[in-house]
Amino acid sequence: MNAVLTHTPLWVWAILALLIQRGMAAAQPNSVTLRRLFLLPLVFTVLGAMALARTGALLPSALAAAAAGLTLGAAAGWSLFSSQSGYLWDQQSGQLQRPGSWLMLMCSLAAFVLKFGLATVAGWQPELVAGAGGALLGRSRLPLNAVGD
């Protein structure tokens, strides 16, 4: 356990701190512009697209998995948050009024723990995330000209 903590780059802890701070802020009623609302999901989508570039010959499968993941994630997010009352779009200010909820913090922490856990396992046991399974997780290190067997 100590090796995990000491060998984790500082930027990972910065991301965790940011996710916790944003989750705590989301626990209080607030308002946000659409541009700011979609900023963090856009950043993570771009990072995911960059990971797809490393899948090489498995790119078609990885793209299909990414599209399915985005679709499922959007559906899950909609089902989790659409049932909450208190959301109100203010046409005049162009902002979304949001009720406070701890749900965003829980979702952010769950995603962080899952991604951190996969990266840790990939560091300890790289053979577990090699090949098609690893490409679908965005962890493959295949060269761009590799061909699947």
List the helices and strands and how they pair.
Layout: H1 2-7, H2 10-26, E1 30-33, H3 34-37, H4 39-52, H5 59-81, E2 88-90, E3 95-98, H6 103-124, H7 131-136
Antiparallel strand pairs: 1-3, 2-3
Would you give an account of this structure?
The chain is globular. The protein has a three-stranded antiparallel beta sheet with strand order 1-3-2. Helix 2 packs antiparallel against helix 6 (103-124). Mean pLDDT is 81; it is low at 140-149. The chain is mainly alpha-helical and 149 residues long. Helices cover 62% and strands 7% of the residues. It has one domain. The protein is built from seven helices and three strands; from the N terminus they run H-H-E-H-H-H-E-E-H-H.
In brief, what are we looking at here?
This protein is mainly alpha-helical and 149 residues long. Helix content is 62%, strand content 7%.
Separation of the first and last Cα atoms: 36 Å
Helical segment tally? 7
Q: Sheet with the most strands?
A: 3 strands, antiparallel
What is the ordering of alpha helices and beta strands? HHEHHHEEHH
User: Which word captures the global form?
Assistant: globular
How confident overall, as mean pLDDT? 81
Roughly what percent helix?
55-70%
Strand content: 5-15%
Question: Which structural class best describes the helix and strand composition?
Answer: mainly alpha
